[in-house]
Amino acid sequence: MRNLRHSHDHGPKFLGVTRVSDKGQVVIPADARTELGLEAGDKLIVISGPGGGLMFFKPEFFDKHLNFLTKRIEDFQKINNDLSKEDTGESEEEI
Fold first, then answer.
1. Cα torsion for 58, 64, 66, 70, to the nearest 10°?
2. What is the pTM of this model?
3. Fewer Cβ atoms within 10 Å of its own Cβ: the N or the C terminal residue of the chain?
4. In which element (H, E) is residue 10 found?
């Protein structure tokens, strides 16, 4: 099996293998729980991933990254608006 563990970055890391129980439960491997600081009772957001996979995220991940992404979207909207004005020949004063 290819080792995806990278100690030098925050990229993908292989943290174990698990199975789905007949109750639909999944045990998160101990290495993954330790790596992410997960404890019993912690909530995780589950999202379908590419190729039929599943991704689990701590809610704090979304708090942190959604703020960043929201700012980037606002930046891109401004750039898009500026480009649209250039295409139509409008100036800021005309709008």
1. 180
2. 0.54
3. N
4. none
